[in-house]
Design a protein that fits this description.
Order of helices and strands: HHHEEHEHEEHEHEE
Helix content: 25-40%
Number of helices: 7
Strand content: 25-35%
Number of strands: 8
Shape: elongated
Radius of gyration: 21 Å
Length: 244
């Protein structure tokens, strides 16, 4: 490879890395307009072809959306019907929509090495550490849901600066971190002693459990397990035939 070709290759990589870094750090949130090709050409003193190559790679990775005559934007979630039948809920928004007062309690926050034999933690510890968050959601002062969430700090570098003392991590992720694929698993359980204590119900009370994983391209972003009171929560999925 000639020096000129190597220089062009390194420059488009730098443009891609710079834009990707701003997205992953949360500087540019979903829906944010990326500088135009001409603006990027001026900023990096390069050709349109170099800029276009960087943007094309970012679009292929699912980080940005390119719209004809409108420009490029940080990608918003757009799951296909066959990939996810349920919207990813914002629990705070759901509680408020019911006319109830929402409150979030962070019970534990730990950035640590993954536990041996715990597959969910191992999958979200690319850099050797995983962020573990235990929390509780309340509606009008009553327990609404328990949550255990794992986040990969390598996939979401900005998460290291978030203490989540007053904001639910799920709401923060929806507003700041784009994802391209999600998986839900729904089950039912009877509350054990610890769950019953935090949910303020009798042991054995019926609960709905939602486990969810999200990815950006092939990189895992988060795993969460939420336990809802069966009498206080339901699931609704809307879809039309023929959606692709």
């Amino acid at each position: 490879m000639s020096d000129a070709v190597a220089s062009v290759a390194s420059l488009h990589q730098r443009i891609r890395d710079d834009i990707q870094g701003r997205i992953l750090r949360g500087d540019w949130t979903p829906g944010h307009r990326i500088p135009s090709e001409h603006e990027l050409m001026a900023e990096y003193a390069c050709s349109r072809m170099t800029v276009n190559k960087a943007l094309t790679q970012l679009a292929s990775a699912g980080l940005i959306e390119r719209r004809r005559r409108a420009g490029s934007f940080v990608a918003r979630p757009h799951p296909h019907m066959e990939q996810v039948a349920l919207q990813i809920p914002d629990i705070e928004a759901e509680v408020v929509a019911r006319g109830l007062a929402y409150r979030f309690e962070l019970l534990q926050r730990a950035l640590r090495a993954p536990k041996a034999g715990v597959a969910e933690e191992q999958a979200l510890a690319e850099g050797g550490r995983v962020l573990v968050l235990e929390s509780r959601h309340l509606a009008d002062g009553r327990p609404f849901a328990l949550e255990r969430r794992l986040i990969d700090p390598c996939a979401v570098p900005a998460v290291a600066e978030q203490d989540f003392a007053g904001q639910a991590p799920g709401s923060w992720l929806l507003r700041h971190v784009p994802w391209t694929r999600a998986e839900h698993r729904i089950s039912a359980i009877n509350a054990d002693a610890a769950q019953a204590r935090w949910l303020d119900v009798a042991v054995g009370t019926a609960c709905l459990v939602i486990e969810r994983r999200t990815w950006r391209d092939e990189q895992p972003v988060t795993w969460v397990r939420q336990v809802f009171l069966g009498s206080f929560y339901d699931l609704v999925a809307r879809f039309s035939p023929g959606l692709r």
